[in-house]
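User: For my dataset I need records formatted as: sequence, then structure tokens, nothing else. Please produce one.
Assistant:
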Amino acid sequence: MMPSELENDYWVTYWTRNKITKNDDLQYQVTRTVNNIPIDPQKWQFTLNEIERTINLSPSDNLLDLCAGKLNHRTSIPLSCATFGTSVC
């Protein structure tokens, strides 16, 4: 078996058998945690504010979110530009 195949098997197993996928908390599902506890709403809002401030998008921009996972960022930031997201496994 090639190293890339082993790596792919690891992630397939991780995301299909791990208890995180069965949790209702989106932060927990994407392992955005501190000591296995989902980050609180204030930390999440701070993260979103920093992303929005840093990228400073305008309506004529296009945003491509690679490895978008559950689309938490795209759906949580009120963007005026066109957004596209994908999650590659």
